[in-house]
Amino acid sequence: MKRGVLICIAVLMLVFCACDTADNTNVDGASIVHEAESVSSEMQKLSSEVVVEQMASEVVCEESSCLTQVEDPVYRDLITEMLDTGKFPAGGSEWYGNPYDNYYAIADVDMDGQDELIIDYPNGISMADSVCYIYDYDRTTGEPYIQCLGYPSFIIYDNGYIIEMASHNHGRSNLDDFWPYSVLKYNEQTDTYECIAHMDAWQEEYNSGNLEFPEEKDADGDGVVYYNWTAEEWDNPSLVMDNAEYEMWYQEITEGDVIQITRYPIISEDEYYELYPQPEANG
């Protein structure tokens, strides 16, 4: 299994991005099986048992406020704005839950030589409230903007890709060692991440509606293929691949190194209630 592959988190929210599609390609069955023999079986699927390497360490601040460690005044102001307004900055949604149970990080996510701000909010009141924002800002005007948005399950690679696990496994498989995920790719022109694929597995025994399992794509005959889908393509999935073709595709996406990110609490619990006293509940 590729180093740094993110485990499926039991509760996840679907990716908020539109995807491009790739062309279906007929691949010779014999060559596919031959290629499969050269690929480690550990790389066959995303595992649900691998410990997350990225964003795993939580650092307790020695100072009273973790915000004093944010050297960039724009990012420090964005976090403060989040706490003051109850909304994620730069047009983000409202946040719910306790901010002291959530985290921020500063890192050069897109490898452009300038740091981005990650607001990692996995502990909302509900699944739908769990979210991760990546922010950047115009170094001339100081105007912040959202670079990437999704569920806080990002594996960020230094080759410009992010893998984000899906919120639910409502697809066409019941495999123990695979969880649906999306692939986001950095666009240097827009300085944002764009979704290029929603990947899922498809078992022959797991059909829905009138859609038949694509046997012609199952070169090794194991009854499993992988495919890209969007809501518009549910009945006509694209980029259908058998095991070996999928493994090579996945290896190309994840050939970069995982960017190690250290998270810090957004604010301590004591300081939060000191700065933002809560109204007493009516008895």
Could you describe the 3D structure shown?
This protein is of the alpha+beta class and 283 residues long. It has one domain (29-275). It has helices at 29-37, 73-85, 243-253, 269-275, and strands at residues 103-107, 116-121, 131-137, 144-150, 154-156, 161-165, 181-187, 192-203, 224-228, 238-241, 264-265. Strands 5-6-7-8-9-10 form a six-stranded antiparallel sheet, with helices on one face. The model is unreliable at 1-57 (pLDDT under 50).
Number of strands: 11
Average pLDDT, rounded to a whole number, is 78
Helix content: 10-25%
Structural class category: alpha+beta
Q: How many distinct domains? A: 1
Poorly predicted sequence stretches spanning 5 or more consecutive residues: 1-57
Order of helices and strands: HHEEEEEEEEEEHEH
Largest sheet: 6 strands, antiparallel
How are strands sequenced across the largest beta sheet?
Answer: 5-6-7-8-9-10
Rg of Cα set: 21 Å
Strand content: 15-25%
Span of the ends, CA to CA? 55 Å
Please tell me what the overall shape is: elongated
Number of H- or I-type helical stretches: 4
Q: What's the arrangement of secondary structure elements?
A:
Elements (H helix, E strand, L loop, with lengths): L28 H9 L35 H13 L17 E5 L8 E6 L9 E7 L6 E7 L3 E3 L4 E5 L15 E7 L4 E12 L20 E5 L9 E4 L1 H11 L10 E2 L3 H7 L8
Antiparallel strand pairs: 1-2, 1-11, 2-3, 3-4, 5-6, 6-7, 7-8, 8-9, 9-10
